[in-house]
Structure formats: structure tokens, C-alpha cells
Amino acid sequence: MDRRKFVEGCALGTGALATTLTGGAWALDARPRTHGRVLLVDEFGDPLKAASLQAQTNYVFHYPFEATPVFLLDLGKPAMPTVLRTRDQQAYQWPGGVGPARSLVAFSAICAHQLVYPTRELSFISFRKGAALNPQTPSKGNDLIHCCADHSQYDPVHGARVMRGPAEQPLCAVLLEHDARLDTLTATGTLGGELFDQFFKKYEMKLSLEVGPKARQPVTGRSAVRELDRFCKNAVRC
């Protein structure tokens, strides 16, 4: 490996060293995107304590834009680094969970197939503690993110990779930092296949009614975290 590729690989972070594709090795060519550092806070505006999160419970915040929702999860078990690919075959290494147990993860709540997302009125996509209810789309185990609109299923323990269904790539990951001293969480960027341009194009009129002119405005400073059941009136299970 030449020095330039080594330096580029190191820039990806721990465990994400770029290699050549020779000999069957991965070439990690999808880079993290910086969208600004945003502190996660509770509904009262106070810094959210990671220890306050209930395991295997849906939480939602918005990042990197005011109208783009994100699932925040404490999986209750470690989530280790995983090598994944975007729809256009760019490889990347998801760094795994953060926090004392490496169990805290965050993923865009925009389905990678039809761009379904949770609104304040309705959500067809959510994290499930167990198998999906639809007998035609059995899961291979517990702990999945399921979209009822197209029955795409994602594995949050392994970077939200596609388990089954028509989605062609994992959910875009939101990168988190955990401050062990303060027990706080900060969103720092994204990794993987972003679908924000397509999302804003598809839902331009709807978002203008839901969020107003600030829909595509970057989130700055802080973002409030809420349980999905408190954020959304009807979280559909299927």
C-alpha cells in the first residue's frame, strides 16, 4: 500500500483502513460526511444522558437537517464495526456503537427504498424488539428496523444492513460521539448512502406544510430526542 492510500485510510478512523481490492480485500471508498456537531438534548433542552435511554426503545431526533429524522437506539448489546456497501457499490466501514457497552447507535429514519419516514401523525418505519407481525415477511431474529410500506428490514446491530426486502442499501448511519465524563451524546456526521436530496425532492410540498421554510435548514447546536411514541401519534406495526 502506498503512503497516500495509507493516510487516506487512517482518516476514516479506527478499523477503517483503506486497502486495495486485490486479493479480495475491501476498498473503503465512502467517506464520512461532516454536517456539524450537534448535542443531543432531552425535551426540556437539557443535555441527554446516555444512561437515561431505555434499551430497545425507539427514540427520534432530527439531523443533519430540520426535517430529516434519525433513530437513536440503545440496543442493549454491543454493536461492532461492520463493512457495508452503498447502492452504487461504495464500500465503507461502519464504526459500531458508542458508549460504555458500545450499544448506542443512530441511523437515518428514512427508508432506503421508498423514502418512508416517521412524521408527527404516522410512522410506517420503526425499530422492533421482535419479529415483524406480517407472516409473509418473517425476520431472521429479533432486533430489527422494519418498514411496513415495503417490508424492508434492517439490522441495527450490523450497521443497519439490509436483512430482506427491496431496499438496495443500508440505512445511512449517523455518527455519534459519547462523552464518558458527562455521559452526553453528540451527532457529528453521516456515513453511507445519503438520500437527502431525493427525500427533499419527493416530499417538498409535504415538508413545507409540516416544517415550513426551515425544512432543509441544517440543525445547529442542539437537537431534541423524544421517544417515537411521544413524537408520533400512530407508530404502525405490521
Structural notes for this entry:
A hairpin with a 6-residue loop joins strand 2 (59-62) and strand 3 (69-74). The relative contact order is 0.22. The longest helix is centred in the first third of the chain and has 8 residues, at 3-10. The protein is built from 4 helices and 14 strands. Helix content is 11%, strand content 29%. Residues 1-27 and 135-140 have low confidence and may be disordered. A 4-stranded mixed sheet has the order 11-12-1-13, with no helix packed on it. With 238 residues, it is mainly beta.
In short:
It contains four helices and 14 strands. With 238 residues, the protein is mainly beta.
What's the total helix number? 4
Gyration radius, in Å: 17 Å
Assign an overall shape: globular
Tell me, rounded to a whole number, the average pLDDT: 86
- Work out the number of β strands: 14
> Roughly what fraction of the amino acids lie in strands?
25-35%
Q: What can be said about the biggest beta sheet?
A: 4 strands, mixed
- Segments where pLDDT lies below 50 for 5+ residues? 1-27, 135-140
The rounded distance between the terminal residues' Cα atoms is 49 Å
Biggest sheet strand order reads 11-12-1-13
Order of helices and strands: HEEEEEEEEEEEEHHEEH
Helix content: 10-25%
Structural class: mainly beta
Considering the chains and any ligands shown, give keywords for the structure.
mainly beta, 238 residues, 4-stranded mixed beta sheet, 4-stranded antiparallel beta sheet, 11% helix, 4 helices
